[in-house]
Amino acid sequence: xxxxxxxxxxxxxxxxxxxxxxxxxxxxxxxxxxxxxxxxxxxxxxxxxxxxxxxxxxxxxxxxxxxxxxxxxxxxxxxxxxxxxxxxxxxxxxxxxxxxxxxxxxxxxx
Length: 110
Description:
Residues 1-28 are annotated as: Disordered. By secondary structure, the protein is of the alpha+beta class. 16% of the residues lie in helices and 42% in strands.
């Protein structure tokens, strides 16, 4: 029997893509139960620009400071943040503690 080289689904490129995907940092959000315990969610009318310290997991947990937007918050100190991870084209959404974000001054304001 011959081999079917044209349809090699598990070639080196696919293996490299799989490895790259596994090594890509993934944001770590607060657990849903913790966010729920902080109180009722309050959405912002417009996204608020911030600098956020987002925990990410590769093979270990790390912290990345990035530009982000706050979309919602709770009275107990949790904030919903949207940011685009480095090397990605789609945004990630994570719940963080409020002290992990700091408001960015709008351009033209002091």
